[in-house]
Amino acid sequence: MSILVTGATGTIGSLIIQRLANAGAEVKALVRQPGKGTFPAGVTEVVADLTDVPSLREALASVRTLFLLNAVTPDEVTQALITLNLAREAGIERIVYLSVIHADKFTHVPHFTGKHTVERMIESLNMPATILRPAYFMQNELMVQQTIQNYSVYPMPIGSAGVSMIDARDIADIATAELLRRDRAPSALDRVTLELVGPQALTGAAAAKIWSSVLGREIAYGGDDVAAFEAQLAAYGPECVKTLKPTLAMISPGL
């Protein structure tokens, strides 16, 4: 029996696969197209689509533990619900699901609504699972790196409340630990929800100070105008807005 990892070629999925392989686990990496990813020795590539029932049913065969990660897409909830129902059909009782912090609080934001819907589905099906709710990924800071370097301004309007950013590698460490804990347990474990945050909440001024230290020059904080920042993001395309929208929602729930 194996551990199946969805989102296998993404940032979190690939990190988890490497860690599971290092731990000696039997790992299957789910991809939509063959040869799309490069995986560690011993990892089995499985080709399936989360919206294609026959291929996904086959992928879940002989799987003991499932890591479920759904990308932010229009059919995100559909993918998750299909996967959960087929996992239940296959008798899988060991699941780790990657949600988002405060999924039940910012339900007016589509990204949060989708994750919260899946959480409720896991609950309604009474599925033994670990629900991981990570805060804003530190790696998302790379999206504003060019702006910082070009204009010497830290543009994220995170204010004085701050954001407890967390590194994707830390998320992968925790997810891997939970997958192994459940996979190695003699029977299904109780459902738990874990909020994943960094060691401190970084304010706008604190983040600017860190960038100043790294770049060796003064980086100013751009201020707390969330609406103006979101308007500026539109110039970089919808993908940028979609990625940073969850953080904007945590900063200003009215958006």
From TrEMBL:
InterPro entries, alphabetized: Ergot_Alk_Oxidoreductase, NAD(P)-bd_dom_sf, NmrA-like
Segments forming domain NmrA-like: 3-221
Pfam families for the chain: NmrA
Protein name per the record: NmrA/HSCARG family protein
Organism of derivation: Pseudomonas brassicacearum
